[in-house]
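User: Run a structure prediction on this.
Assistant: Running it now.
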Amino acid sequence: MRAMIEIEEELARGKDLVISPHMNSLELASMIIRTGRGNIDVSHALINISNSNSLAKKIEDMRNNIGLGNYENAKEIASEIDKSLLDEMSATEFGLEETRILIFEGKFEEAIKYSERFLKSMPMSPVTKLTFLQIRGHALISLNKYELAVIELHKAITIGKLFPHVQSFYSSLACMVLALTKMNNAIYAQRYLKILKSKVDEFAGQECWPDRFMVYMRAKTFLHKLRGEFKELSATLKECREVSLWLNDVSTAEKCEKELNEIDEENKSDIVTKNFDNWCFLENEGLILHYNPKTFYHLQNSPLLIQIIKLLGQKEISYEDFFETIWKQKYDPERHGNHIRSYLSKIRKYLPLNALQVKSEMISLI
C-alpha cells in the first residue's frame, strides 16, 4: 500500500513512470495507467485479471469502480475488507473511498463528519488530503454552504499546485467555479475557469487530457447558467455528454442529458455533434473521438480542417461544391483537383479507416 502511495505522489508531481515486469504487481500497473494516463478502462481490466487478494488490490478495484460509476460494486468490495487489519495509512486510503461512496449516496453531512475524523488525526499523503478536501467542498456545495466550500476548495487548490497531475486538482478548480457561481460571483468564477482551462491545455495530446477536458466542460456549464447563456450552455452540454459517453462515464452523460432536456427548444444551440459509425465529431471544440480502438484528435489549432469536416458531415458533396464552399472560388478540375485530394489526405489521418469515402468526385463521411 505504501509503495502505491509513493508512486501516486510521483505521478501527481508529473513524473512519467514506465510500467515494467519488475514491478511484479498488477495493482501498481493499474494505478499508473489510471492516475498517470487517465485510462480507467485498461486499469479496470488489469485489476480484473489479478489473482491477488491484497488490500492494495481491493482499494484499487474500489477506485476503478467508482471512477466508472459502478458504486454498488465499490460498496460490495468495501464490505469484504476487514477494517481491524488495516494500519493507519491503509485505513485513511480506505476511508477516502468510503467517503466517495457516501457522496454518491447523497449522505453529504455524514461524508463531511466522516472525513473530518481522518483529516484531524490520521496520517495521509498530500494527494490524499487534496482529494479529501475536494470531496468535502463538493459535499458543502450540495448542502448550499458555499462559503465553507470555498474555504475547503482553496486549501485543496493550494496543495494541487504542487501536484498538477492529480485529477482531484482539476475537480477542485471546477467545484470552485460552481461554488462561486452559486454565490453569483461571476468575476472570480471566470478567473478560476481560466486557470482550469490553462492547466487542462498543458495536457493537450496526452492520454489523460479527455478526463481533464470533461471537467473543464462541466465547469463552463456552471458559468453559462449564471449568465443565462442558454445557447452556449446547450452546445457545451451536448459535447460534454459525448465526451462522457466516450469515457464510459454514464453518470455524467445522464446529468448532461437531463440538463439539456430542461432547456427550452428555442434557446438551444444549432451547434451539433456529428455521430458516425465508429466515431463522432464535436463541432464547437474541433474534437474527433474514435470509439474502437479508443483514441482522439483535437483540431483546435486547425480551423480549416474543422471547417472541412463540418461541411463533409452535413451530406455527400461534389468536388466542385466542396471547393467553392471552402475556398470561395470557381472550381477548375485541372487546377484544383490535386489541391482537394491533398486536403482529403490530411483529413484521413484523423479519421477511422474508410470513414472518408470518395467515389466519382463525390465525397462523404460514414
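The radius of gyration is 23 Å.
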